[in-house]
Amino acid sequence: MVDPTSDLGEDVDEADAPSCASCGSKIVQSPTHRVVTWIEDGSVQTRHFCSEECKAEADDAW
């Protein structure tokens, strides 16, 4: 599997692509892709967003 968070985003098909945590869209080769990471209970957690706008909406909701 190709890393869906790679800078290049090449060769990631929709089945392997992450979904936006705000709107649910699949994120495929998107230059506006944002990832938020944090440590919870000793493991890395991530949330993917298709744009800064979706990230801002999620920030307001959480």
In N-to-C order, the SSE pattern is EEH
Q: Which CATH architecture?
A: Roll
Number of DSSP helical runs: 1
N/C terminus separation: 31 Å
Number of domains: 1
Spatial order of strands in the largest sheet: 1-2
Strand content: 15-25%
Contiguous low-pLDDT stretches (5 residues minimum) are: none
How would you describe the shape? globular
CATH C-level class? Mainly Beta
Radius of gyration: 12 Å
The description of the largest β-sheet is:
2 strands, antiparallel
Indicate the mean pLDDT: 85
Class from secondary-structure proportions: alpha+beta
Proportion in helices: 10-25%
Give me the oligomer status. single chain
* Number of strand elements: 2
* CATH fold annotation: Ribosomal Protein L24e, Chain: T
InterPro entries: DUF7576
Pfam family, one: DUF7576
Protein name: Small CPxCG-related zinc finger protein
Organism: Halobellus limi
Topology of this protein?
Blueprint: E1 34-40, E2 43-49, H1 52-61
Antiparallel strand pairs: 1-2
Protein name: Small CPxCG-related zinc finger protein
InterPro entries: DUF7576
Pfam families: DUF7576 (PF24461)
